[in-house]
Amino acid sequence: MFLAMTLAHAGVVDVATVSASRTLPDDEGVSYAETNTTDHKQSTVWVEGDTTGSGLGDWIEFDFGGDVELTSFRIWNGNFYSYDFWNRHNRIKEIELTFSDGSKQMITLADEMAPELVTLEKPVKTSSVKMKIKGIYRGTTFNDTVISEIVFYDKRDDGRVPVKGYNASSVYPADADGNYDPKNLGDGAVDSLWCEGVEDGDGTGEWVELKFSGTQQISKLELVNGNAYNIMYFMKGNRATEMKLAFSDGSTQTVAVKGSPSKQTIPLTPVSTSGVKMTFTAVQTGKEFNDLCIAEAVFVE
Fold first, then answer.
1. How much is the pTM?
2. Are 297 and 255 a contacting pair, CB within 8 Å?
3. Which of 93, 146, 210, 281 is deepest in the core (most CB within 10 A)?
4. What's the first-to-final CA gap in the chain, in angstroms?
5. Where are the alpha helices (DSSP H) in 83-124?
6. For the residues 103-110, what does the mean pLDDT come to?
7. Closest Cα to residue 45, out of 62, 58, 28, 26?
8. How far is CA 261 from the centre of its chain?
C-alpha cells in the first residue's frame, strides 16, 4: 500500500531570521531557542517562555529577508522529541498569522503527532509571517506550548517532483521516538527517517518506491543518507553506498552514494517516469544498529 504525501510544485522558502516574544531558558545544555524551528530537525524545539501560563498570546516570527509569494507551510506542532514528550507538552490549536502587509489569517491545527501541511486561503505576498498562539491542546504534564519545526513554501517551481505516495519493502516498527515510514523521506526533516524492518539483514536488497503525480522528467536525486541527526547517530546505523533506480519505462540506473550525513546531489541520465523504485544494492554497516535508514530522498527535474 502506498502512503500518500502530496505537495504540488512549490519552492522551499529560506528563512533569514527568527524571533519570538519569549523563550524558555536553556536547561542543562538543552536549547529551546526559536531558531530550532528552522534547523530541519524535528527533535529540536522552540518552547514559549510563559512561566505563569500556557503561552496564549505568545508569538514566533519568521523573516524571509525579502518578499515571497507564500502559499503554504508544513508544521511539526508539539514536541516531536518523542511520543511521550509530545503527549506531555501543549500543542497549538488555533494560531493567528500576521503578514508584513498587516493582513491576518486564523488557522486551526490538528492535534496529531504528524507534520501538517497548511495551505493558505490564497497566496500572500509578504516578507515575514508572525504566528501568535490563540488556543491550545493541553498536554498531560507540562503547561508549555511547543513547536518543533516549520517549512514554508512559495509559488516558485524549484523543480522538485511532487510525490503522491510512498511504498517500501519493509518498515521498522514505530517506537518511543516515532515512526519510520517511507513518507518521512519527503518531509524536509533530516531526523525523521525511513528505516527498513528486516531483523536478520543489513538492508541490502530492501527498497523504497516513490509514485509521482503523473509522468515527470527527472535529472537528479537529492539524498540525505542514514540518520542525519548528528554524526554520532549517523555512524551508529547502517547507510547506503549504492542503489539501483528502476523507472516506469523499464530502464534502470545504478548510482553510488556517499557515506555522509550531508545532503548530496546525485546526477542521473534524464528520464521521463511516473515513479522510481530505489533498491539498495550495497550498504555500510553501523557501529551499533544493523538497520538501514535514509533521511531524505527528493527527485528533481
1. 0.91
2. no
3. 146
4. 26
5. 83-88
6. 97
7. 26
8. 15
